[in-house]
Structure formats: C-alpha cells, structure tokens
Amino acid sequence: MSTIQTHPVIITCAITGAETTREKQPNLPITPKEQGIAAQEAVKAGASIIHLHVREDDGKPTQRLERFQEAIQEIRSKAPEAIIQISTGGAIGESIENRAKPLTLKPEMASLNLGTMNFGDDVFFNHPRDIVALAAKMHQLGVMPELEIYEAGMLENSLRLAKQGVLREPLHFQFVLGVPGGMSGDVRNLVHLVSLLPENVHWGVAGVGRFQLPLATHALLMGGHVRVGFEDNIFYSKGQPAKSNAQLVERVVRIAREVGRDVATPVQTRKLLGLK
User: Fold this and answer.
1) What are the structural domains of the chain?
2) Low-confidence stretches of the chain (pLDDT beneath 50)
3) Of the candidates 74, 119, 186, 229, which lies 20 to 30 Å from 32 by C-alpha distance?
4) Which residues, in sequence order, are bridge partners of residue 145?
5) What is the pLDDT of residue 122?
6) DSSP letter at 47?
C-alpha cells in the first residue's frame, strides 16, 4: 500500500456544499457571515482546510465571484490561519466557465474533478479538455489542485495526466466515496484505491452520508487524511442531525487521538502538502 504513514492527519471541513438544504439540515451555513462562523468553529475544533461552496441568501448554489469574495473575506477575518479550498465543481449543470471563475481569487487550494459520472439522478460532466484547462489555470495561478476521485477510472486518469505533466507534484488525492453513481463507501473500495497510488503522495477520504464515520476511521488507521462536514453528511448518528460542522470535526479529532494520530495544524498542513 503506497502512502505516507508517519504524519499527522489533515482534517478538511466541507461546511456547506451545493446540494444540502436548510430543510434537511437547519444548521447549514449559507451566508458569508454564517460560513465565516462555521469555519472559525471548525478550525478551532481541529480542521485545517475549509472546502468552500457558496450560496445566495435564498440558499441557491452559485459560482458568482463576488459571493466567493465575501465568503473568503469572512473566513479570513474569523479564521485567518485556515487554508481555503474553493470548489470548481459547483452545482451539477454549472458551466465550466463559471466553475473556473473563483480561481482568479488565488486561493491556496481548489478541487479538481477527474472525470464525468452519474451523480444521483444527474450527470456530473467533466470533459477531458476542461480538466486539462482547469489544471493549467490552477498551476498558472499558483493554486494547488486537490484531485477529486469518485471511482477507480478517475484515479487512473489522474495518473496518466501526471505522467503527461498536466498534473504536477506534489499530488494530493481526495477519494469521495458513497455518491450514487460512483464507488460506494465499502472500505474495500478505499483499500483498493489506496493500493493504486504511487509512493509518497498524500490522500484523504470523504465518505458521503452513512459512510462518513467508518471511512474516516479507516483512513486514520491507514495513514490517510479525512474530510467531514455538512456537504457530505448532515447526521451525527442515525436519525440525529449534527449540531454543527465543528461537532463532526471534534469526533474525528477524538478518534485520531485514540488511535495515536496527531492532528495537523494549518501550519503543519501547509508544510505537509507543500503549499507556498
């Protein structure tokens, strides 16, 4: 199994997402001010990276540049040490041009999706030329891509792009498991994906819904990093909505300490990932 085993765990918190609604999770942060507070709480609990989608005041997902600016300003004012990772996935059906716009704000990191897939009842479309163009724009602007992998074919594609020089080291992979249409959150899928990785790369896992806790626990034992948050899971336990994003972070921190993993600070995270 190819991974780095002797490092603290990086915790990412995906505080909002593009699909979760207030009807299903009343504590979902929507406005920039709410996102700033949620980020502050998550970082205080142990998160280093804030994965950021933005919404309009009515809850509708958007890629509007001004909204990203407002949210980033709020997060930086309340959690200045946080690493902000913007989403270039946006909502399903968003144009690639709009998905790329927030990169001009030069965040430290951004998500890069490596293929097209069925996503629930929709199709998440990522044309090969758009993947290459987004990667080139990130490199041009000094934004580190997090390589979003929903199934094994996307991982194989990312490794091909790395050989071609489209993706450049250091590589950081995020396995998103449990989306209907992609690989499920069965731990055997995680083990398989990690077995395909090259040596000395960092990887994390985002388990969707009921897969969040078991996959986070296995990642901690396997030397990986962890993503939690309302984008992926709105419950703390079966039938019990989480009170906050921070509550989900706090649980991962407790488990990490129980299994002997330190939790990376934002400073350590920047060093581990080679962020400038």
Assistant:
1) 11-273 (3.20.20.70)
2) 1-4
3) 119
4) 110
5) 92
6) -
117 is written with which tokens? 């897939």
Amino acid identity of residue 25, one-letter, is: Q
CA 200 to chain CA mean position, Å: 20
pLDDT score recorded for residue 5: 53
Q: What per-residue confidence (pLDDT) applies to 2?
A: 42
* Dihedral sign of CA atoms 213, 48, 36, 20 in order: negative
Residue with token string 């419950």: 235
For residue 170, whether the previous peptide bond is cis, meaning omega lies within 30 degrees of 0, is: yes
* CB within 8 Å of 97: residues ≥ 6 apart: none
Identify whether the C-beta of residue 155 lies closer than 8 Å to the C-beta of residue 114.
yes
The CA distance from 110 to 133, in Å, is: 14
pLDDT reported for residue 91: 81
Q: Rounded to an integer, what is the distance from CA 36 to the centroid of its chain?
A: 17
Q: What is the DSSP string of 71-129?
A: HHHHHHHH-TTPEEEE-SS-STT--HHHHHGGGGG--SEEEEE-S-EEETTEEE---HH
| Count of all residues that appear for the chain in the document | 276
7-34 pLDDT tens trace:
999 999 999 999 999 999 999 999 999 9
DSSP letter, residue 182: B
> DSSP assignment of 145-169, as one string?
EEEEESSHHHHHHHHHHHHTTSS-S
Is 246 in contact with 41 (CB distance < 8 Å)?
yes
Residue 246 contacts residue 44 (beta carbons within 8 Å): yes
| Residue entry with tokens 């990522």 | 126
